[in-house]
Structure formats: C-alpha cells, structure tokens
Amino acid sequence: MKKLESLFNPKSIAIVGASPKRGKLGNILAENIKISGWKGQIYPVNPKYAKNHAKYFASLQEIKKKVDLVLVAIPATAVSQALLEGATASPKISNFAVISSGFKEAGTEGKKLESELVEISEKYQLNILGPNCLGFINPKQKLNATFTSGNFKPGKVAIVSQSGALAVALLDWTESIGAGLSKVISIGNKSVVDESDVINYLAGDKDTHAIALYLEDIKSGGKFIEALTKLSGRKPVVVIKAGKNKLGQKAISSHTGSLAQDESIIEAAFKKFNLIQADNIPEFQDLIEFLSFTEIPRSGEIIVVTNAGGPGVLASDFIGKSEQLSLLELPTKVKNELKTLLPAGSSVENPIDILGDATPERYQGTLEILSKYLAKYPTLAILTPQSQTDPDRVAQVLVKSKKKIPVLLTSFLGGKKVSKAKLALKEKCISDFSSPEEALAAMEKILLFRNSQSDLKKRTGNSPKELSLKKQSSSIKIFDGALREKRHMLFWNEAEKIFNRYKIPLLKSTSFAALNDPRLKKVKFPCVLKTDDPKIAHRWDKKGVVLNISNFSEFKKAYLRIKKNTKSKNFLIQPMQKPGLELILGMKRDSSFGLVIIIGLGGTYAEIFRDRVIFIPPVTPKEILRKLRDLKMYPILKGYRGEKGYNLQEIANVILRIQQLASENPEISEIDINPFLIYNDGRKGQVLDAKVYLA
Q1: How far apart are CA 236 and CA 225, in angstroms?
Q2: Strands (E), 17-168
Q3: Per-10-residue mean pLDDT for the chain, 695 residues long?
C-alpha cells in the first residue's frame, strides 16, 4: 500500500514550471495555493527565472530543504527529467502531482513518455498523481493545489475523479449549494497512483465519511478488489462509471487513453462490494448531497408531508415499487393529533396531505407532531408554491425541524417562486430535490447500502471450505500433452479426469474415433452423439450433435453425417437424459480482475436471453445463494405456480468446486459448461457438455 499522507497533507510544496506571469499554469497553481490560505512553504522552480528572481530555483536539486510534494506543470517531454531531479535530490522527494497533459491520451509518443514516468517511479519508489490531472484540494488544510479557483469548505465527502473537468464542475456545484468536501482528488491517467491507492488512503482518513468516484476504467481489478475488501463497507462509496458501451469507450480512449474493459465484470465488482451506483451526473450529485447533509436512515419506513395531492401520489407510486422503502403506518394517536390540527379535507393517512392553502404554521404544527412521536423515521416534505403557501417561511420551519428529525428531505417544486427557499434549505444542510422521485431514489440507494452492509461483512469474513486436494501429476500431464499437440481445448475424457477430482458431476460418456471401436457394442439407446473436436467450440452451430438416437442404424447415419459436417476424428456418446432445467456455468480469467465465474439460463437460447450473474472470487456459499436471486429465472429455481423448487445448495456446491478447480489450475484459461441439467424431483444434476480451454 502506498503511503500518501504527506502527498495530500504536505507542509512544503515545490512548483516546477512556476512563473511570475499571470495566466501561466505555474502562476495559477501558486496563486491558488496562496489564496486558499495554506501556511506551508512554497518553492518556485524554473531555470528561466532563477537568475533574476531570488525566490526561484533552477532545479529541484537546488532546494536543500525537505519538500513533501512537487506540482509539475511543464511540457510532457520535460517531466521525466524533473522527476529524476527530485528523486535524486538531497533530501529525496517522493511525491509528485503531474498536472501536465500530452501523455497516453495523446497517442503513441505520449504513451512512451508515460511509460518513462512509471519506470522512474518503480526505480526510485515515487508516488505520482496524474499525469493529465487537475491536482487535489484538501479543504481542512486550506490547500488548493489545482488550477481551478473557489472557496472550498471542509465536509464529509471526498470526490475522486478521473476527469479533471468533471471535478471542476462538481466543485462549482458543491460551492453553490454550500456543501463541504473532505478531499477532491483528480487522478487523471493514473500512471502510478490509481483509484485503489486513493481508496486505501481515504479509508483511513478521519475527515472522510463517504467517497464519490468518477471512473472511466479500473487500472487493476485485483488491486481494486483488495482496496474495497479492506474498506469492507465501513464508508459509503458512490460511483459513476463512464464508458459502458463502444461509443463511450471510444471517447474515453482519447480522453485518458484508457482501454475498454468488460463492463459486466465491473458491474459485478460494484455489486459484490456494495458500491452505490449512480446512473448519471444529476443522480451522482443527489447522492453526494444526501451524504453531505443527511444521516444514513436506519429505517426505510418513510413519512411524506405534502401540500399537493398529485406529488404525494407520485411519491406513493415510487415507494410502492421499491424494495427498500415503504410508507409508515401512522399510529392512531398521531392521526388523532393531526385531525385536531388540520382542516377538514386534509388526509391524516400517509402521505399526509395538508392541502394547497397550507400556511407555514400548518407545516410547523404537522412536523412538531411527527417529531414528538416519530422523529426516528425519515420524512419527506413536499411543497408547491400555491397562493397561501410562503416557500421562504416554510423553509425556515424545516430548518428548525431538522434539529428534531435527523433524516429530513425536501422537494420544493417550481422555479422562480421557490428558488430562494431552496437555496436557504441547502445553506442549512437540508437536502432539497427537484422532485419527490429524485429524493426517494437517492434514499433508496443509500438504504440499499445500509441494508447490505452486514451481509457484506459476513461475506468478506467467511472463506469457503476447500476440498484440500493436492495437485496430481496426471493433471499436469494432460495440460502438457494438449499443448504439445497445439490444442487449447481438452478432449472430453481429459476434462472428465480433472472434473472427477473436484467432484463436478460430469455425465459419464464414451469417447471413440471409429465405428469399429469395440465399446460401441455396449452402447445403450436412446443416446446422443457429439463431435469431440477441440477446434469446434459450438457443436450445435456446426451441426455436430444428434439427439435421441434409438438404434445402431440411426447411430451409424448420425456418425457419418457429423463426420461429413465437421471433419471430426473424435466423437462422444452420452446417454439421452430426461428433460430438466438447463443452466450455463463457466469461468474465465479477465485481463484486469482475474478469475470470474458465471451462471445463468443455459441451453440453445442462452445467448439470446442472457439471464446470468457474475461472481468475483473468492465467493462463499452465502454469497452464491444471495446472488442467485438476481437471476430473472430465480422464481423458477425457488418453485413457481405449484412447481417444486430446485436444490440451490447443489448449484452453489458446483460453483464452489469450479472456483477451486480454476484457482488451483492456472493453466486453465476458461471453462464453458452448457448445459448443467438440474432436476426438482430429487435426481442429481449432471453436466452434459463442458469445454476446458488452456492458456
């Protein structure tokens, strides 16, 4: 783990590329540091001004005092030399933030320059933020080490962004609503210090209570998982991920030079570690605002107070389809007190409709009753600017109520008439949303995080039981033999030997090459005939499978037909199985995340419906059983419309065995099982078709 404390909390900063000329990047950096109120020592470095300006240094090596951080703002071609000067200075400088652009995002030459930064970092053990980054802000230390200006106050949420421009926009937005931030860190191209390093740092940062990530790629999936495992749900992490399709990935390539990744695996990682996912920038902002101003609710039972029936109904519609939220059933004593307060025609059910002519006093009285009996429940106050409703005074009422109702959200609907009130609410740390649905959507995602926290701790702290098998030389011989023959897929009988060791229930089959094989005399009908050619990945597509063969005459015809269609020399006979539920199972080694396992609906139409979930090992039995619920076919697995359910533990056991097989045999690059046939009548499941690929 990189030590980043002195990088983000420096006592002395050197600026390479400093300039006395206004408008120059080095000058802007120095001025922003001074204006922000930071009290540390600044060392301007620029050989151009060293002779005529007493405060300037010609190089980092001329500074004979300790430098905690270097901001580099010079052309990309000169950055490596600046790093070398700092790395070999006395005392050595270890922390750099490279603001300069022109690296891998700029093409082939830029990639070479960035590779040089990485080589220097590895040789001299340097921390490098960027390149192509904004820098960072530490509001508590009154340090703005970026080239954007503003008045940034301390808060609870840290923003970590791969896009400097988005970070600037978010800074401007948080300033406009009066929200503080614990840190703002622009990671740019992530040549050395990446999102995982920053998460590790923020996990131990006392000022940071929540983390908001904007990511275009994940540099190292394994490292990312390790960082999230250490964080283990202790702090909420909100993430917005760009580049979810080909067009987005193309744009990313020219932005930070990142390569396309498998988005389904990234999504699985986010879900595994309970990250709060935002689908767009407004939702990202809503979640940041919620975590900045509001406690995480302990309950999803919510109270809605409104002066307009329509928005109250829309709020109820949203709550009605949510798995995390519900409308609280109000106690009789609360309803009775509300009846004495509210005029005839009001609704004392939930949502509480205090009518369109509601005055600030009516809002105040309602909230006082709720705070007396139901203060622990989250409350959403809706307002539309009707003639007898004073939005500004209602806002004042809500500010006072927040002291008694910790989770208080508002939705002041409208424009000009409510603009001043909305600003007043935010200035007093009350989250106000453009619509009731936006408020409830933010709360729903925050509650999903809270409700999943305990499950995450159980999963990360519970290792699966292994089979305690020693790797046999027979496995190695199988792999070596296949590779000598330049085969990257095993024959069925080879896969059978390996699967049997891990107790994966492979259907017992017969492999043969020619019709004169004596074993064919013992074939029982009905049977299935398949090609066993390692070059044919999809047997159905190549007409390499014939089902339900009832006699030897049909068998001979099927054999000749498959041989003609596929040119195969190896074949496979299997007993015909009774129909059951077909699942697809498999594993592969992702270039970033390593071993991943997949399960879903199998059979001929598996690729059409694509009903599947991805597991990122290590997985435990509890995690598998929980994640199976994400399948659309889960109601069928549990038992649907009077049908018996299937043995979910049997499915989990096979997944665990595949996990161990893949973990203990790195020679295997991919396993494709389709179908794994399971039954709901007590019969054991069987793997009917399996392909094992070698790296």
Answers
A1: 15
A2: 41-45, 69-72, 95-98, 127-129, 135-138, 143-146, 154-161
A3: 90 97 96 96 96 90 97 98 97 97 94 97 97 97 96 96 96 96 97 97 97 95 94 92 65 45 89 95 98 96 97 98 97 98 96 97 98 97 94 98 97 97 96 97 96 69 50 74 90 91 92 92 93 86 92 95 92 94 94 94 82 93 93 94 93 95 92 94 93 92
Q: What are phi and psi of 80, to 5 degrees?
A: -55, -40
The H or E element that residue 584 is part of is strand 581-590
Type of residue at 458? K
d(C-alpha 141, C-alpha 164), whole Å? 21
* DSSP letters spanning 168-187: HHHHHHHHHHT--EEEEEE-
Given the structure tokens 């948080």, which residue do they identify?
A: 174
Distance of CA 27 to the CA centre of its chain: 37
How far is it, in rounded angstroms, from Cα 87 to Cα 74? 17
* Residues contacting 412, CB < 8 A, separation 6+: 383, 385, 391, 395, 418, 421, 422, 425, 432
State residue 123's pLDDT score: 97
Q: Based on the number of CB atoms within 10 Å of its own CB, is 368 exposed (0-12), middle (13-18) or buried (19 or more)?
A: middle
For CA atoms 366, 372, 373, 378, the dihedral sign is: positive
DSSP secondary structure, 599-661, as one string? EEE-STTHHHH--EEEE-SS--HHHHHHHGGGSTTHHHHH--TTPPPP-HHHHHHHHHHHHHH
CA dihedral 30, 32, 35, 36 (to 10 degrees): -120
Give the pLDDT of residue 255. 41
The residues that bridge with 687 in the sheet, in sequence order, are 506, 676
| Contact by Cβ (8 Å): 406, 436 | no
Name the nearest CA neighbour of 71 among 164, 146, 163, 122.
146
What is the Cα 191 distance to its own chain's centre?
Answer: 21
Q: Do you know the residue count of the chain? A: 695
Q: Residue 58 and residue 63: Cα distance in Å, rounded?
A: 9
Token code pair at residue 455: 């499950």
* 101 token code pair: 């652009």
Identity (one letter) of the amino acid at 232?
Answer: S
Buried b (16+ CB within 10 A) or exposed e, 181-210: bbbbbbbbbbbbbbbbbbbbbbbebebbbb
Backbone angles phi, psi at 681, to 5 degrees: -120, 15
Lookup result for tokens 């409308």: 327
Beta strands 301-306 and 352-353, pairing class: parallel
660 residue type, one letter:
Q
Query: How far is Cα 379 from Cα 125, in angstroms, rounded to an integer?
Result: 51
Determine how β-strand 352-353 pairs with β-strand 276-277: unpaired
What is the residue type of 561? Answer: R
User: Residues 664, 681: contact at Cβ < 8 Å?
Assistant: no
CB neighbours of residue 606 within 10 Å: 17
Helices and strands per DSSP (H, E), number in the chain:
23, 27
